[in-house]
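batch job 7 of whatever, protein = GTP cyclohydrolase 1 type 2 homolog
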Amino acid sequence: MTIKELTDYLEKIAPLSYQEDYDNCGLIVGEANAEVTNVLVSLDVTLEVIDEAIAKKCNLVIAHHPLIFKGLKKLNGKNYIEKSVIKAIKNDIAIYAIHTNLDNVTNGVNFKIAEKLNLQNVSILKPKSDTLMKLTVFCPIENTPRLQDAFYAAGAGEIGNYSNCSFKSTGIGSFKPNSVATPVIGQNNKYEEVEENRIEVVFPAYLESKILETMRKNHMYKEVAYYLHRIENQNQAVGSGAIGNLSEAMTKSEFLAYLKNCMNLNVIRFTETKSEKIKKVAVCGGVGSFLLADAKRQGADAFVTADYKYHEFFDAENEIMIADIGHFESEVYTKDLIVEIISKKFTNFASYLSEIDTNPIKYYH
């Protein structure tokens, strides 16, 4: 099992194209073709985490937060980032980051928070646009079933909870092969009309090359008539935050106690709200203030997130409870999520949860 085989699988679940522009996901340190011995999963990468990887004989650290966000011009050990990179390289330890791409998918970071809170009917809080494409292709009637099945197998035709989605209509296609053509249907230099189907399928934009390769491999014609559109539809399977319902409405004090217990919290910073009961809850791991308007618009009674600034709390305007639980605390269970994803697929190496508390913030009780 190579590192690339493992990370390719992770990137099927959380494609790198879904990361935010500022992010730096993927293989940060190490050789993709190196064989995996064992894997250490951590929220952050520090010198202590690298030492833990050495002790547990792990040659791959998978972290939620990238060790390197900005380009490094020098590697001389002047800070923890450079020291960690140097130590990892010296000990043949690769470092991989799966950050906002894992935030932005269903069953990712935010859905893990929703799971911890036992929320029901969970969906993406703010779906993304411009992540979908549509392929329109024309083919003979008899070629249609094979082509459709191939598209579905390649990942096209999935819309929400539905698969094998496509549209077809029948018409007449016309063409005239020239003297050097080798037509499957018709004769050279002779005008031809053929009854054809127009097939339309939607697919994630990152699959474009795979879908086109599938089309050419399974189409009867050597010269395929098709066109692509990038569509502006919101992708309900990709986006920021999550929202769902508690199984039962709670009073504000009951909800805060429930939240503290479920997420194992030391402290919660929160705003008052005119709502007497909390039922619908929005969540966002890490910095989430950019989603407050979306949480309000969808009627959330509470918004669980982190890293709120003093003046941003006023934006609640008594309409919603903002519950700031801390950055580390909101994302710490991402480690469990990553181990679950790996363990369900691979059994030929060990995946360890890091025992290092990488939270730089401490609390005085």
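notes: The longest strand covers residues 235-251.
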